[in-house]
Amino acid sequence: xKVTECDKVVGxxxxxxxxxxxxxxxxxxxxxxxxxxxxxEEYLELLNENGKSLAAYVHTLxxxxxxxxxxxxxxxxxxxxxxxxFELGTSFIAWARKIALHQILNYRRSEKRKPVYASDPAxxxxxxxxxxxxxxxLSIRSEALHICLQRLPENQRRAVLLRYYEDxxxxxxxxxxxxTEGAVYRLLSRIRGALNECxxxxxxxxx
Amino acid sequence: MNWENIDRxxxxxxxxxxxxTLERAIIDDPEMRREYVERRWLHAHLIAERDSLGSLLxxxxxxxxxxxxxxxxxxxLALLGLVGFAVSSQSVPPTVATLTEAEGCRWEGSDLPTxxxxxxxxxxxxxxxxxxxxxxxxxxxxxxxxPAVLEVESTMRCRLVEGSVVAxxxxxxxxxxxxxxxxxxxxLGTRFGVTTTPIGGSHVFVFDGEVKVIRDExxxxxxxxxxxxxxxxxxxxxxxxxxxREVEPIAQDGNWTAVxxxxxxxxxxxxxxxxxxxxxxxxxxxxxKHTNLAPGNERRAVLTFDMSAMPDHEFEAARLxxxxxxxxxxxxxxxxxxxxxxxxxxxAQLDKWSESALxxxxxxxxxxxxxxxxxxxxxxxxxxKKGSPNELIDVSSDAxxxxxxxxxxxxxxxxxxxxxxxxxxxxxxxxxxxxxxxxPAPTLWFKTAPSE
Lengths: 207, 452
Prior knowledge:
Chain A has nine helices and no strands. By secondary structure, chain A is mainly alpha-helical. Helix content of chain B is 15%, strand content 36%. Chain B has helices at residues 3-10, 16-28, 30-48, 50-56, 69-79, 398-406; strands at 97-101, 106-107, 119-120, 123-129, 131-136, 141-154, 157-169, 177-179, 183-196, 202-215, 222-225, 229-232, 251-253, 256-260, 267-272, 285-288, 299-306, 317-325, 338-345, 376-384, 392-396, 410-417, 429-432, 443-447. In chain B, the strands form three sheets. In chain B, strands 1, 2, 3, 4, 5, 6, 7, 8, 9, 10, 11 and 12 form a twelve-stranded mixed beta sheet that branches. In chain B, strands 13, 14, 16, 18, 21, 23 and 24 form a seven-stranded antiparallel beta sheet that branches. A five-stranded antiparallel beta sheet of chain B has the order 15-17-22-19-20, with helices on one face. In chain B, helix 1 packs parallel to helix 3 (30-48) and helix 2 crosses helix 3. Chain B is elongated, with a radius of gyration of 30 Å. Classes of the chains: A mainly alpha, B alpha+beta. At the A-B interface, helix 3, helix 4, helix 6, helix 7 and helix 9 of A face helix 1, helix 2, helix 3, helix 4 and helix 5 of B.
């Protein structure tokens, strides 16, 4: 596969957002790419703080995991290019979501490969509206998730790791854990149900 | 239509038609939409949290943690609309591993503690000499072989910048991941080794079990099973180079006079049973390995010194020095302390071998097993300890001295490793050859009577 300069920068931004905010070489590369002359450290700090939240936003709107990752890469690059327009002090995540939504809607229009579930723009927009409406409670839910994950019993932890860490499909998990696909689906469904319930309890006890 | 289909959509269990129906229902029905977003948000967050899942769900975290007070505060503030998502769960730097063995190690440029028994947080370990063992809190054990640079990232993740590691991963730590520049190696219950070189090549060897390898340029993960390996990027063999070495015909140091394989008609090379690349005479290192597990990897070195460079042969003592080099091939933790033997070649016909032509195939007496005691005499031996630094080996014996006294024209030696390995991915030892750009070639030293 041909790797373009642009891909490389996206790769670097991605790596950086996730792991190493102090990478000097990447700073230089980022500077070459930006439209104006914003401060990369500020950008990276904001990206670090909001990266997971933005990722969750995109994965909520885009059902195909690979599409979502592609879109997130494109977002990080676009956000950096436009970072000069971002007003420090305003909500970075709100700004980032706007860019992401634009990317998602455009991505659908330009993408030739059919994902498993094609999504109607009307659907994406209605979900995006719903997220905006629930924005505050959703961000608290994200925080509570950590605590709830740690309360899962061992067999459920393994299932979560296989599904979300290893990114295994249901049939792969079934093979690895020697269960039927139906049993794996029910287990995952039960785990998500338990997590949502735990999160709701956390929210109640916190409020 | 019911909520179960929402859940099924998360795992790709809906048919495209069912999905379309669900989509319609979500657009039309606010209650459905609210429910979808709540469930989908959890699913999306689990994906977004992928990197921290390993450490969050590691077995040692099984016990319930005390309620974290910041959560309440964050939740309260967020309800008031004062903060968005700025509270990070990583505000206290956690320790994720312990440096369990670090005997005889020399470190450089590490921002983590390097004392044996130290608790390690997130940061970099740069091992210059020796072999160190890191026990991650997930249960995974990683043995680092110098020279190596490793970044510790979490109880379930580390990044190998350069060098070799061997990982032992118990069931509790399945999913333990080692990243390199080229790929991500995810354990699925196993013992495996990863090596990566500064020029960008990466190797994965799976000794037992199974690992999954993810690469940027590949859409699909690759699974590698016990006994198999995967190699990516630049070949680990050192490229051929033009060497311009100022050859001092004879170096003198006090009463000691030196003759290296770079002097006069001197020559050095190694042979490998399954030659893949032809004669090795021009390579900067001489590789030596003995193995019963992968006989094709057996390697021996042949050294010839031009003794006519010596003005007289009445020396009192003789030594052979060899500079140990890293090959980047194989793992030293899989090789016990290794014993080497130096054999002298008695048959002058054998001195006539050619650096540009010698291979295992045409190596004749040099590659016979065992070496014919009529043609070869064992003169000396030495040991390289497991994980030891790249020292200068210095061997001497009366037998070596007597052998050299008798060889006034050319003196040829065969260097073999007598000990094997525990696994066929064990270390290949190497010594600087006369083509090495910086390190000394194999050298004989002769002690002569002080001149008047």
